[in-house]
Amino acid sequence: MFSYRHAFHAGNHADVLKHTTLIATLRHLMLKDGALVMIDTHAGAGLYRLDGDYAETSGEANEGVVRLLAAFSKQKVAKPITERSSDATNDVAPALQDYLDLIKAFNADGGARIYPGSPFVMHHLLRSDARDRLKLFELHPTDAKTLDANTAQLEAGRQITVTRQDGFEGLKALLPPPPAANGSRRALVLIDPSYELKSDYSRVTECIEDSLKRFPTGSYLIWYPVIPRPEAHDLPRRLKNLAKRAGRPWLHTTLAIGQSPDRGPQERPGLTASGMFIINPPHTLKASLQACLPQILAALGRGRGQGHTIESGGPG
Ligand code: SAM
Questions:
Q1: Catalytic one among 192, 210, 234, 262?
Q2: Rounded distance from Cα 79 to ligand 1 centre (Å)
Q3: How many structural domains compose the chain?
Q4: β-strands 250-256, 273-279: how paired?
Q5: What is the CATH number of the domain that holds 39?
Q6: What is the pTM assigned to this prediction?
Q7: Residue 27 belongs to what H/E stretch?
Q8: Ligand 1 center to residue 244 CA distance, Å?
Q9: CA atoms in the 13 A half-sphere facing the CB of 207
Q10: Which of 29, 149, 275, 311 is positioned for an S-S bond with 254, CB 3.0–4.6 A?
């Protein structure tokens, strides 16, 4: 426990998938006036330096957000000739552009030195008139302290709370969220464990089962690693069953960057794929991901095994 530090992984391909999906979902939710409670059960440190020791040691951001920014710096994506048609446009997909713009907002000098973690992604989209709330949980003593210090700089007062508590437990007290002025109750929950413990997989499903009873209409976003482990393999199937049983729509997407052909036989590939499972996704999310995932893959794909999937289903 506590050996996982997100600073090693910030801005990698998994963060690209997770944060692009998060931003696209939040953009849709922000179209409605009603107050939104955003809950991040596994928040991390909030902000990361891509030129610091952690990121430079792992080099993961270089194969993720840094490569993506370089590929799209001219704001146009060059499609392979075979995919071009006379009326095809080469424009960057809106959800990808939105992600890139948000990263650029944290790097005013045009570089890629700072990476915003999910708390800062959410804060960036939160409406500053105090309507929305951001509730952050982080258990690691050092990361919780850093998160506290990072969010304090935002001077957001009661709009943001940071709690050093188990996020699965902390979530229970926050659902259902309080009604907004117009009576509506709205919440987005990001569940993004490190899966350092095998029990994280079953805790995710228990948490979703419980949350759907407390607040069936919430937007739940769950990240998971695609790795050869039975618990990881079973997780999306279990989540699908829970969504179906609760009569809620769902969307499941994966992004695999594949393995580099230059990799030596002794080199470990590291994480090459991950997934997002969304319960009660915006009706626009599937099309948004369909447009942007091929573009992300064109920039980050490394060869053998690369690809993406998107499936969705309704109640019943
Ligand atoms: N959501 C962050 C982002 O996208 O920027 C990254 C989070 S990282 C994958 C997972 C975090 O969860 C780690 O910082 C870890 O210390 C923390 N953690 C692990 N178990 C936890 C628990 N039960 N409750 C709250 N935080 C936990």
A1: 192
A2: 36
A3: 1
A4: antiparallel
A5: 3.40.50.150
A6: 0.94
A7: helix 13-29
A8: 27
A9: 28
A10: 275
